[in-house]
Amino acid sequence: xxxxxxxxxxxxxxxxxxxxxxxxxxxxxxxxxxxxxxxxxxxxxxxxxxxxxxxxxxxxxxxxxxxxxxxxxxxxxxxxxxxxxxxxxxxxxxxxxxxxxxxxxxxxxxx
Amino acid sequence: xxxxxxxxxxxxxxxxxxxxxxxxxxxxxxxxxxxxxxxxxxxxxxxxxxxxxxxxxxxxxxxxxxxxxxxxxxxxxxxxxxxxxxxxxxxxxxxxxxxxxxxxxxxxxxxx
Lengths: 111, 112
Hints:
The structure holds two protein chains of two kinds. By secondary structure, chain A is mainly beta. Chain A has no helices and nine strands. In chain A, 34% of the residues are buried. By secondary structure, chain B is an all-beta fold. Chain B has strands at 5-7, 10-13, 19-24, 31-37, 44-50, 53-57, 65-68, 75-79, 88-95, 102-103, 107-111. The chains are: A mainly beta, B mainly beta. The A-B interface holds A 34, 41-46, 49, 87, 93-104 and B 4, 31, 33, 35, 40-45, 48, 56, 58, 91-93, 95, 97-106, 108.
């Protein structure tokens, strides 16, 4: 499974757009890119998954360039409740096999 | 959909004791996964089941660890002769094929 690299931490203010970039230089042809969110003392929660170009849902957008060696999770107009750890993973569609987590990006949103 | 349920939420035990955790997946989810998470790290895969069959086990799952999923419904994870290094959050997830994994809120194990 491809290794991912993402910033250890990011800070933002309420109402701003936050973009978290993940590098996955060794992504395989069949790999999808998936993002999870985790709050303290809770399990990870699925946010979004994509294969190429752009995917958008009610929570976030995922931008994937043509070479697929990186991806960017975009959170529009963050609030304090978006303070969490965000994990980027690559693997099969919906990672029906085991998920391989990195250390994630700790996002802190300030008022 | 009541979500993935894990019991207990917290467990404190002395080194050398045996502990057992339970996971109730979302009903009709045929896949069930166990992960372990230590402070500041992402979850690490331990094992997973498809229905009652245990299909993969991580090298992290030493001989002191055993997981079962009788009848393909709930699952238990047992740790025998606990050690200090077993202190962690144990997470369970379930899914249907081609759908995202849904996680429970874990069992936090503390070894005294």
